[in-house]
Design a protein that fits this description.
Layout lengths: L1 H36 L6 E4 L4 E7 L3 E5 L5 E5 L3 E4 L5
Antiparallel strand pairs: 1-2, 1-5, 2-3, 3-4
Amino acid sequence: MEILSQLLPFIFLIAIMYFVIIRPQQKEAKNRLEMIQALKKGDRVVTTGGIIATVYKVEEQFLSVKINEETTVKITKEAVARKYEDEA
């Protein structure tokens, strides 16, 4: 009984850490993976480097994106930070 009373604060702390830190990160990672898998030609994205581009071609692990009319770049899907939404 004494051991349980000593371990209870640690168990409580681990439970709080799980619900405050770990679970939200897992949920966000899942949402990001779904977003990346749903990318299609014509979607506008922001890369992790901050470049706004339009998806030109979707491959298994890579995307070809157009930065402007003359420039097409091939990037990994993991380099996409988020979809770009115009703030109109």
